[in-house]
């Protein structure tokens, strides 16, 4: 009964969540569940500190589960997952068919391999789910302090209930969504880090309601008996509406009072809170997206290949069935086909004979589809991820101690076929480490540095840029890379306008929401800011002599130097009266403060467009000059902000403050009313100047992008930055260059501005859409003209978010896609997270190209999930992008290794594995098919049942796995040196139907060799006792030839052969002989067959000649193909054939062996050149050879006793033997 009500409650919460998200909270919907029809409420009521009152509602517990299965669902759900694969369903059908009387094989021989494959897959699923279960247990059993009987009791997270009062200490994580009641900081303030939630590492301020500040001690908290009425659980991280009813007083609640699960407490000794949402109903859990199930393109093509194989199987069976119906005849009297013959051999019912023979042959030929293919590929991919990608030192970032992480093993080979990369800019291409670099104060530019983008632009123009040497006064610390002696150490007092400089520095030191941390000294203090830009601006103020060192809810303390006179330092306390916070709509932030002398000032900083709109009339020269400086900074790739201030009279401020308080206490449209009130005071501003902050490119980004471009990969940058910054970053990254023809589609045109000024939204939308359509058409015509010319330039497209919104309209989407696909580079600026995902989906679905998205922030999640492959940068913006990704790396430059090395190798290996599986199974099945022609199409088996069953599982299984793990066409360094090799993967050269057809031709050829050579040569053969060879003698001989040949054929397709190849191939052949030696002792039909065969000379001649003849065609084909129609990698192999191979060293890096110094020396010695000495006749090193080479390479290798002895023996001879 409780389970039924649990479903009712979950349905109610889900429906009410839908209602709240659409804004119709008053609407209730009826849910039909048997005869019960509960109504979904618009809100939930929580009784704080009263479990008994909450008990009837039965809120969900705080335990979470991220597992895929539980004890009861594992078997049925796991089997369902396995039988979603066509091949497994096929083998289940074959197993069932083999249990019928018409089956020519023993049922166990089909059931056993299928059971083994399913068992391995289920064990893998169980292992992965067990790891998830262990992680859940660690989280659910984390301790938290709960108020019980007026004292704090420690309980695990999973035992928390809605309404409980809990205490969380500094650096602790919030176990559920909490209502903040009180904290140890003044005025009920606490500081929260939300990195696990939204990716931002900067601290956020949360403030308790004044009415609950006193509930800090367990005694006082026990007196709290409030009632919370709030929204139903939903996934909106930034909204929360509710009321706290305490002592008949209703107080409005906002997101400022909500502490979300997964966030951590910072800079606060402890807080006390009431549990609002628990477990799966917390906002973070409702945002925990199930990463969409992605299947690689190669795997989908594999399904088509299996369907083709099934079609071939049916065709072969149909031929046999029809021939059987024709062949059956009473004239073959020795077959006993009289009236009493069973249906499958009754000449009077030829249709019945044909139908039953069809099913018999399906069972007989079932090996054409490899049963171990999927499990082998899964094993290969899993090891590739865990041992190669995750442990590649070339993708290890030492500074952050971060290695590459493959979060899924389904898409390894997809990495080798990527054609389009969609990249975020900030934090992905750039470091997201902001540094104050230049500024403009009162119309004068300060700062002498040259940005990377300016340096790159100069090089493009052919100008040699001299490195600027920093002055003695230059200071470089985190967030500050400024050099200009005119402003440093009080020198600004000598500038033409020192008062404006003073206002500039004070604006930097006061207008922010930064929190100081640590000792109150300039050297030791650290700043926690809502964005890296803010921290950089406050750090700049500190270095200019205006050191912000303390904050309270109402005061900011600044230590000012050189203000009244040089060398004088004074601490000044500024009273913060109001803070008008920054948001994406306002694009500015303001602070109203009172000086110690009573002066009232509004400081404002924000985007140039919004600040200029609010400047007072006059002073046009300064506005014009500063705008020129802003354009100059933008061209240098710097992020700009404008600073302004306004002096306020007490009367104006008091009048405005009344309206501000009313808006702040409003329960409806509070944010909108606050914005409207802010407009009343943020006007008639006086321009101070502007700041320019540099966000440097990550190390190696330009080189990586150039390498990827040479590999045939097209890179698109999708960013929220303005167009000028985005274009300049694109230049700095080598994404755009002067040789390219650029198409720029922007909404910042005079015609569009003119229409926007009229304010008619319908007209604006219509006009912009027409303009975008016109631009797209013009650009597309020009692009086609450039492409039709022989030496036409490469093309680049730049489009902003507003135009993109209309270009993504269904009527213009095709035109945008055609233009974009013709461009080598595309930059989309001012785009929203949704637009990023839309652009990615446009190329993925419209162009049917393989796409990869890479980003580092929460705003990149939708783009990462929309692409075929999602890559997360584990950088400074938390882990949300990583958690939603398929692969995670620490730096953008590692993308070259991930794609050009691991991706290409994985693609080549998986292609070889699939085509080889296809070849060996088709070859084996065709020998049985040819035998059918000699048996009157009766379904007589050629091979023993267990030969057929173990062929895939044991005798040919291991070598192909070795190829999938260790085969390398060229080394990692050559893969990056010749990125053009990657184009073979983009074109899918190694898994085309032509390649499959070639393998099929060799299967037909080899199967005919096996069958005809063995049967014809054994026709007149006799064993040592004089008896002719029987069926099982011939089939055992043929099977031996098949096993030897297909295993040797594997070595012919390997580009690099390791000891593992030899061990696996030799071991597989040896396994067959061991098996048949033992099996033929106990099995009646093949009793002592192998012993009889091995007693004849015929056996040894056959196993020597048949494989040679069978592989001769492959050998000739491979030689002709390599000489006259070589692949790109084969050309590179020939170029570097005489160079030492770095495979072993690369392997050491990949597998990340941790060697002791002694082991390292032994490994180095093992890699030294070897040669044979003719003197001794043994494969030892020539005298002193090892020591000599060791000395050349700086490796200490002491001479061995036998070295000295052999040297002595050499000297005793009159001549020295020549070395090979």
Automatic annotation (TrEMBL):
Keywords from the named record: ATP-binding, Magnesium, Membrane, Metal-binding, Nucleotide-binding, Translocase, Transmembrane, Transmembrane helix, Transport
Segments traversing the membrane: 305-328, 351-375, 913-931, 951-970, 991-1014, 1029-1048, 1060-1082, 1088-1112
Bilayer disposition of the protein: Multi-pass membrane protein
Domain P-type ATPase N-terminal per the UniProt entry, residue ranges: 46-110
InterPro entries found in the cross-reference section: ATPase_P-typ_cyto_dom_N, ATPase_P-typ_P_site, ATPase_P-typ_TM_dom_sf, ATPase_P-typ_transduc_dom_A_sf, ATPase_P-type_domA, HAD-like_sf, HAD_sf, P-type_ATPase_IV
Location (main, coarse): membrane
Record carries keyword Signal: no
Keyword check for Membrane: yes
Location(s), subcellular: Endomembrane system; Membrane
EC number: 7.6.2.1
Catalytically driven reaction(s): ATP + H2O + phospholipidSide 1 = ADP + phosphate + phospholipidSide 2
Coiled-coil segments on the chain, per record: none
Domain spans labelled P-type ATPase A: 142-202
Enzyme class: translocase
Domain P-type ATPase C-terminal span(s) in chain numbering: 882-1126
Family: Belongs to the cation transport ATPase (P-type) (TC 3.A.3) family. Type IV subfamily.
Name this protein carries in UniProt: Phospholipid-transporting ATPase
Organism (species): Hevea brasiliensis
